[in-house]
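User: Run a structure prediction on this.
Assistant: Running it now.
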Amino acid sequence: MSNNLVYIIMDSCRFDSYQAAKRPNMDRIGAGDARYAYASWTSPSHYTYLMGMIPHTSPQGVFASEVYKQDFVKWVDRLGIDDLSFKSFVPQLSLPKVLQDNGYRTLARVSMPVLNPTSHLNKHFDDYKLMENHNDFAGMIDDIEFYDDEPSMYFLNLGETHYPYMLDGKSLPHISGVHGVFKRMDDEMGEQTSDVFFNDQQMQDLHRQQIKCVEHVDRVLDALISKAPKGTHFIITADHGECFGEGGYFGHGPIVHEKVLQVPFLEGKKR
């Protein structure tokens, strides 16, 4: 029998934020380690994950092509579907397509507007929804249903860990144009902003806030674990990290820095 799959991406969550957080429910799923994302911002990173790839360990002394092949083979154990391999993903290179071909319902709940249902990411999904709020993991869980006669894949993008959608948003320092980036970007094109770069204390406060948000996600996760049938395979990771002042950087995307690429990764089945 095929296993249900819950694939959770904590948007912008860097590894050391996960590491510093109290996370008893994530620990029930599996031990997390530090991996590296294939991209430094949301859309291309999610596209990579929907290809069936996962954050990598940056192994040395091996042919890079072998890393890809080994990653794809791991879907056999995750899903309980025999004979899956890299060839199963060709030519579409689409995890939801492979799952649909194997009788899965494929559903996505996303928080970031850049991942909205009209984007190129909404392909081979039976149901794909942009949440009304950017930090509504609990609402996603309310939406989730599992069925005895049909396995499901839920692909969840969580905004709780992403500046500026963190839980205590009113207390966060503000950058012009960042709150609702794509909704208001046209209005602010060509405008000169007078933003002053955050000081060290503000950067430290932002990092602590992300740690608190990981802890919030962990508390909410308990309800999803309880709802999922035994054998459900969970993957929890991040699409990229975030710089909070390291090397003079803030944010992610056009930034090459370990804190932007290093993400947590854990997986395991509900027992």
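Residues 5-188+197-269 form a domain with the Alkaline Phosphatase, subunit A fold (CATH 3.40.720.10).
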